[in-house]
Structure formats: structure tokens, C-alpha cells
């Protein structure tokens, strides 16, 4: 097998997670290579809804989300790219009285954790979000949430990493990770071997398979998540909308089209690297979103697509080193949250490599949660 230039860190996968990690490492002066089986940002990170949200996060990942949002506003200038990042807030709508106490309690918990979030009721909600359905009674509103344009972000990160000296190997698959004396020594790829001290597993839906190369089991499953895009409509909706009792995430992107998601499933074809759209999910998604935002009934659908996403058994990412071999870091299992978190996950990966100590505690998201005596069990 031919030898490619050795580096300190090989980042495997150039979705937004790997791209952000490579950027943070290379700008800190760490010699970095990015190995990507396909095109940059072509899997979950290109298909994503692009929501950049802190509210509603699991308490284990909320500190990462808060830090990530502090990074998002400066990224466009820093990466030298238009990411269409808009910080117009996210409102999680409440349709039914019986759901209110739980939402109000969650908002209080998030306020206690340092998030600027408030409840908005009745007429105040309709003033904030004109067009919301009349039966909706309230919403939790975080004004620092927002959204960005997914296909552009991983590419912008990779280009910036390359400017800092990182090497990109596109259309190159990692086929094995080499280990000696309990430590990572390199990777074998479809284009040759690369020696390195560290490997970052940022391959999304293929994360469990890659971890298995070093004998580590990760309870991560692949799902295909579905999105809808409408024709262009006059500008009206500023915030991203979710809903407690519906499967919906809704935003109007700068072109005027409405982008509709919410976790509706497609059919996974993992070996062929894509998911197939399910008609039942198109119908369900259209029904749920137009129930809370009736204007959508006047908009024709232009496109539906899916993206393959890695979902951990307990619904939060897996971040950090494996017990063995040394030098193998995991950043996958993002469970539908990885786009928003990526800027801070990149920082965390850089900190693991350069100081061994992330500035945001991530112990609760570590691999060991699946292997300790009180481990999270696979369902
Ligand atoms: C439809 C949809 C909507 C979503 N909406 C949101 C949202 O609104 N907000 C949010 O925060 N998150 C959202 N997510 C989740 C978010 O997009 C993902 O968590 C995030 O993009 C994951 O990025 P990643 O880089 O970890 O994985 P990916 O983008 O999947 O990248 C992994 C890369 O690894 C490569 N790879 C795989 N195997 C190998 C190998 N052996 N060698 C080399 N390369 C390999 C793949 O080709 C791929 O490019 C959504 C996801 C989907 C699918």
C-alpha cells in the first residue's frame, strides 16, 4: 500500500463535525488530514434542516449548545463564507393546556442553566409569530436560537482548514485503523496509508463500524430523516418553529421557500449511502406543519429528500476518547443535533488533542456511559 504524508491527526469524515474539528486543529498549528469517502458535506450535513437551537436540548448537551451558539455569529467572518446564519429565534409551540406545565418547567430548568428563554402566550405569541394557527396557546421562545444553510457550512470549514494547512483526501475511504502498543499509529485508506498519533471518528452513520475497527462497540443506529421544501413564498416567518405535540421543525429560508422537517423517517440504504423518501412521511410532515402554520396549505411542495443520521441509543452524541487504544477520539451519534453543536464539538476535539481537557465538561457524553456498571442499555 502506498504511503501518504504522515500527520498528527487524521479526521475521518468531512461532514460538519469532521470539518469543524479539522479547522480548529489546523488553526491551532496541528498537522491534520481529512479523509472523506465521498464529497465534503454530502451526507447528514448536506441534508440537514440547519436549525441552530439550544432550547429543548438534553441537559448533558445544553452547555455545548450554549457555547456553540456563542461561536455561530462570528463564523461567517472567520471562515470567510456566507453561511446564511440568521439568529431570529426558535419558538416551540404549545397547542394544548395539558402540555403547558411540562413546557414551563423545562423553560425554568433551562433558565437555571443559563439560557435566555421565556414563555410567550396568546396575543403576544401571535404578534411575535404572525401566521401561527389560532388554536395554539403559547410557545417557549429563545431569541438566540436560529438557523444556517447546511450544505455550505462543512465546505466553508474545510476550505478554511486547508488555508491553515490541512490536507483533504476526498473520495477516499478509511478501511482500517492501525494500532501498536495500545496506541493509534495510522489509518489505511483506499488511496494509501497515513501515519498519525490521533484519529477522530467523525463518520456519522458509519460511526459504529469505524469504532469496531479498534474493537469498540458503540450503540449507534442509522436512520434516514426526511425534509420537505416548498416553492418560494413572500417573506413572513422569521423564527424557527417547533411544536410540543407535533413532529415539526419549520423555517422560511432566505429564498422564500419553507423548509419542513421534524424527524419524519425515510428508508435507509446505508451501503448505497442514501435514504429513500417515504410518501407516508411526506403526508404526515405536511399535515403536522400546516396544522400549526396554516399558510403552508397554499404552498406547493418542490422537493423531498432524506439524509442518513446516526442516533445513539440514549439520543445524545458520543464524544471523547475510547478506553483503548489511546489516540482514538469519537465524535458521532449526534441524534439529529449535530449541525448546531458542530462549532463547539470542533473546539472540544481540538482540546482533547492539544490539552487532554475540554473546556466544557463532556464526561456524561463519553463512550464509557455504555460500558460502566450502570451503563445505558441498548433497547
Ligand atoms: C434531514 C436532517 C435534518 C436535520 N436537522 C438538524 C437541525 O435542524 N439541527 C441540527 O443541529 N442537526 C440536524 N440534523 C443533524 C445534523 O445534520 C447531523 O447531526 C450532522 O450533520 C452530523 O454531521 P457529521 O459530520 O457528524 O456526519 P455526516 O455529515 O454524515 O458526515 C460523515 C461523513 O463521513 C464520511 N464517511 C463515512 N465513512 C467513512 C470512511 N470509512 N472513510 C472516510 N469517510 C467516511 C461520509 O461520507 C460523510 O461525509 C439533521 C439531520 C438530518 C439528516
Describe the protein's architecture and organization.
The chain is built from 9 helices and 22 strands. With 379 residues, it is α/β, with parallel strands linked by helices. The protein has 2 domains: 172 residues, 3-Layer(bba) Sandwich (FAD/NAD(P)-binding domain), CATH 3.50.50; 146 residues, D-Amino Acid Oxidase, Chain A, domain 2 (2-Layer Sandwich). The strands form 5 sheets. It has an 8-stranded mixed sheet, with helices on both faces. The chain has a 6-stranded mixed sheet with strand order 9-3-2-13-22-21. Strands 1-12-11-10 form a 4-stranded mixed sheet, with no helix packed on it. Helix 1 runs parallel beside helix 6. The mean pLDDT is 96. The protein binds flavin-adenine dinucleotide. The site of flavin-adenine dinucleotide has 41 residues, from helix 1, helix 2, strand 14, strand 20 and helix 9. Flavin-adenine dinucleotide binds next to helix 1, helix 2, strand 14, strand 20 and helix 9.
Quick structural summary:
This protein is an alpha/beta fold and 379 residues long. It is built from 9 helices and 22 strands. It folds into 2 domains: 3-49 and 151-218 and 314-370, FAD/NAD(P)-binding domain, CATH 3.50.50; 90-143 and 221-312, 2-Layer Sandwich (D-Amino Acid Oxidase, Chain A, domain 2).
